Amino acid sequence: MTEEEVKEEEISEEKLPFPNAAVVRLLRANLDKDKIIKKEVKIAVNRWLGELCEAVAKELNKTPYTTVTRYDFEKATEIYRKLEKFAEEKERILAHLEAIKKDIERLEKDLGKEEA
User: Fold this and answer.
1) Secondary structure of the chain in the HEC alphabet?
2) How many whole angstroms separate alpha carbon 33 and alpha carbon 42?
3) Nearest residue to 23 via CA among 9, 37, 6
4) Taking the CB of residue 27, how many other CB atoms lie within 10 A of it?
5) Torsion of CA 82, 77, 40, 43, to 10 degrees
6) Dmax of the chain from CA atoms?
7) Distance between CA atoms of 21 and 114, rounded to whole angstroms?
8) For 84-109, how does the pLDDT look when each residue is reduced to its tens digit (9 = 90+)?
9) How far apart are CA 32 and CA 98, in angstroms?
10) CA distance linking residue 111 with residue 106, whole number of Å
11) What is the reported pTM?
């Protein structure tokens, strides 16, 4: 690494939205014990979490009241929960389609369809 790259990394760490140790602790808690997390990944996750927090805050700011409530939070984060459910539903549908494909192949074989 050049001296300029080292200085850039030091500066970027100072401007991170969250303490890096907290982010790394969360990463390590959810990764296999043998995984090594590169510094660039730790910084990228930290920045991404900051962007996510900013997006949620912007949604929270849309409330017309001076007090932000749990309801406002649930509403602001609803899109992220829906994305997670969407991904789960997508996996379920793909597994179901795969089972249908196997049934079709089995039926074709039972009916004597010749493969090209």
Assistant:
1) CCHHHHHHHHHHHHCCCCCHHHHHHHHHHHCCCCCCCCHHHHHHHHHHHHHHHHHHHHHHCCCCCCCCCHHHHHHHHHHHHHHHHHHHHHHHHHHHHHHHHHHHHHHHHHCCCCCC
2) 16
3) 37
4) 15
5) -170
6) 71
7) 61
8) 899 899 999 999 999 999 999 999 88
9) 29
10) 9
11) 0.62
Q: Can you tell me which residue has the tokens 């014990």?
A: 33
pLDDT of 42-69, one tens digit each? Answer: 999 999 999 999 999 999 999 999 999 9
Instruction: Kindly list the domain boundaries of the chain, sorted by start residue.
Output: 1-61, 77-116
Instruction: Count how many residues are written for the chain.
Output: 116
Q: Which residue is associated with the tokens 């459910």?
A: 85
Q: How far is CA 19 from CA 8, 16, 50, 60, 71, in A?
A: 18, 7, 11, 23, 28
8 Å CB contact between 20 and 13: yes
